Each structure stands twice: as structure tokens, then as C-alpha cells.
């Protein structure tokens, strides 16, 4: 090679070396650094833990196991949902397998695109044959967006119900909120969370560091009070062995399965670590660490909360049919008295308030990433990063609008609103399952492990994760009560079906002509420098890929 040919490459390598290590890794994936990396390992753990908001999430959804098996479902259903485990290669602990697979993917490809980027990378037939990759990516992204928007809606709707339950307790039942009042407060919380989500990343990281302390303190206080204050408690035999299936109408086995929705709804926020990977330092290590530790912490804390509540609830009928509208506050009121319950329930409200803000932040990054690759209507608008806050403010408010529209389902029926809980779990776990399936099948030989990987266990763990995901998604599409009527129908299948149909028709009619997966946003000279750097440090074939933003042409890194 002549000196004239070597000089551009040297300049390209020099420009590449100016990038920090995290930006270099992002450049290797084809994206330029657009966010400030204000999150570290601790704040990312705080973010993931706050996304799951275990105290408030369990309190909001405890009615599902209570009405589908009672004590046995409350205590053992939670553990069942978190018990599909395998030992990892470098850590000899047990952990929720879907989270374990997601940690491996996040370590390999730490980008805001997250799930659908993983699916794109791992679903290609070869560097020059995209195969079904665009369609796989398209549906992964759409169900992920819908699931996350539904998650925000379900969090803020339950937050609204919590506030009105507190007011009802203050007024000794004199106040009964109307649907219009509930909808108005719901919209107000969405706007508040939109404002918080629009703040600079540095402030968001600080808020989450404070929030995790509040969450931990509130969880400990509630658990201690539920154990210590009740004058009457259930026996251990009742708590661990009593099965009460008098409410669902399903047989005992399937009722137990449906009761696990509270665990699945709570344990679906850890994927947010992937969504803010581009805002975290050392994301390839911090992301997996945050996923694993936050899931373990949430599983333990959630089980202790449920165990305390099960010992304390002495009347299932009274709790499920409470005038407060939420069983958990009735359990507190009966066990701890009015003054203590007012304080405890306010802690639950505060936890849910911050959980909602975390969910809006994570969802806005999902919207931003898909829009950056041109996948949503008016994508150019939603992919803008504000120059002052360096956050995707437009994507934040699109999230607020989408969640607000889901709240309008209440004008149809309460059952339609209940479907939001279902839709969140179903959509997010489908989005988790697709890249995991690609990882253990067509993408098995294309996968490039990061600092955290599962080694020989990947295929086994991934297979169990996929089987569990399919099983739980199909189960949660069934109605929760029998006989089925218009008032207890599970409308999640209708809403999800409508979204999938819309996305499918759009792809078939138009999007298939131009949507080819993730787009390259980094300059070609930097991307070439990454290729030169990679080829100088490894003799293995580089199977990375990216797409040119302007003409959508497929580019391989030779």
C-alpha cells in the first residue's frame, strides 16, 4: 500500500482514537454518540430497580393472585414466575432466565436500539442476505413500543387509583371518584412524568439515585409494619398451603397460572437497562450487572412483601371487594389501623410516582431508537435530541400522548382498562423473546459475546426462556374470569391484535420497500476506522453490519 493510501486510514484511525471507549463500542455498532453518559453502574441499577418499583407494583397488582388461588398463589406464584433458572458461567447464583439472556445481549450490543437491534444483528442469514431480518426487526420494535407505552399507562393509571384510594380513606369513604375525575388525574400524572422525562440526563440520574433509597426504605417500612402491627395473623399452614379458587371460575391449575400476572407485570422493567445503554459509562459491563442485581433484589423484596401481606390478610372477600378499590390498602387498614395506613400508603404512592417517571424515560428511548431508524410515522420528528437537555424530548411527549390515548379505553369499559396491565406484560415479553430466539437459532454463530456471556449455557438457558415466554404470553391472552362476559373479557388480545395487524399491513403495503433494519448514523470515515481497528486486533471474521441512512444500502465491514 502506498503512503498516499495509508495516510487517510491513519487519519481515520486517529479520529477514532479521539472517541472514548464507550463511544468506540457504539461506533462499532454504527451509531454516533448523541447522549451524555451520566449514568454509572450504581445509577443504572437504581434506574432498573425503580422501573420495577416492587412495592408499588406488587400493591397495584396483588388482586390477581388473591383472586386466582389466594394464599398459595400469592406466596408460591411469585416464586414460580421467577424460578426458571440456570447457573451462569461466571456467577454461581440463580436468576430469572429471561433476564440472564437479556444481560448477555446487552453486554454484547449496548445500544439504545436494544431489543430490535439484537434481533436485527442475529436474524440475518448472512452479510449479504438479509432474509427475514427486516420483518423480524419491524415486529420486534412495534411490540416493544406498544408494550412500553402500555406499561407507562398501567403504572400511571394504578397511581391514580392509589391517590383516590388514599383520599377515600381520609374521608372515611365519603369521597367516591368518578371516571372523569380519575381520567383527569391520570392525564395530570402523565404530563408530570413527561416534564420529568424531559430533564437533562444528569438530573435524571440523580433523581433515580434518590428514588432507589426511597424505594428501599419504603419497602422495609411496609414489610416491618405488616409483620409487626396486626393483632390477628394467619397461621403458617394457611399462608403456605391454603388454596382458594372461589373467584376466577377456571380450574385450579390454570387459575394459578393466571395469578402470576402480578409477578410478570412487576418483572418486566429490567430491559430498560438496554434502552439507556448509550447514556451509561462502561455500558457493556454496567448493563448486565444492573439487570442481574435489580432482578434479584426485586424478586426477594417482592416475595417478602407478598409474604407479609398473606400473613396479614384475614379476610380475602373484604380485601377483594374493598371500598378503596385496591386490596392492598384494605389489608393495611385492617391490620395496621387508619393513621398508620395513611402513612404507609403515601409511601406506596411516592414509589409509584417515581416508577412512572422511570418508565416514561425508558419508553421514550425505545421510541427514539426506532424513530432514528425510520420505523415510526414522522420518525424524523421523534428522533430529535434536544440540544440543551440532550434528551429526546419529542419522543417523551409522544409516549405521553400514546399512554393518554390508552386511558380513553375506560370510556368503553373497565375491562378494557384492565387489559392495559396485560398488554404491557405481553408486548414486552414478546419483544424479549424474539431476539433470544434468534440468539439460539439463526444467530448462534453470528453472536459476538461481550464482557458478560453465558458460554455453553446460552442455548439451554435461551431455550427455556423462549418456552416460558411463549407459555406465559399465550396464557395471559385468556379471560381472567369465567363465565366470560363483555365486562370481564380480556381485551388485551383485541388491542394487541389491532396493533400487530396495523404494523403488518403497513409493512406489506409500504414499509417493506424501504425499511431494512437499523441505519448507520456515524460518519463513514469513523466506521471505516472501526473496521481497520477491528481487523488489526482480530483474525476472526467481522460479521457486523449496518445500513446507510440515505440510500438504505447494505454495508458490510470487510
Q: Could you give a quick summary of the protein structure above?
A:
With 558 residues, the chain is an all-alpha fold. It is built from 25 helices and two strands.
Describe the protein's architecture and organization.
The chain is mainly alpha-helical and 558 residues long. It has a single domain, classed as Amino acid/polyamine transporter I. It is 65% helix and 1% strand. The chain has a two-stranded antiparallel sheet. A hairpin with a 6-residue loop joins strand 1 (545-547) and strand 2 (554-556). The chain is globular and about 70 Å long. Residues 1-19, 84-95 and 530-558 have low confidence and may be disordered. It is found in: Membrane. One of its GO terms (cellular component) is membrane. It is a multi-pass membrane protein. Its main location: membrane.
Identify the CATH architecture: Up-down Bundle
- Trace the largest sheet across and list its strands: 1-2
User: How many domain regions?
Assistant: 1
CATH homologous superfamily grouping: Amino acid/polyamine transporter I
Q: Write down the secondary-structure element order.
A: HHHHHHHHHHHHHHHHHHHHHHHHHEE
Unreliable runs: 1-19, 84-95, 530-558
What percent of residues adopt helix (DSSP H or I)? Answer: 55-70%
Which structural class best describes the helix and strand composition?
A: mainly alpha
Number of alpha- plus pi-helical segments: 25
Rough outline = globular
Percent of residues in β-strands: under 5%
- The averaged pLDDT comes out at 80
Main sheet makeup: 2 strands, antiparallel
How many DSSP E strands?
A: 2
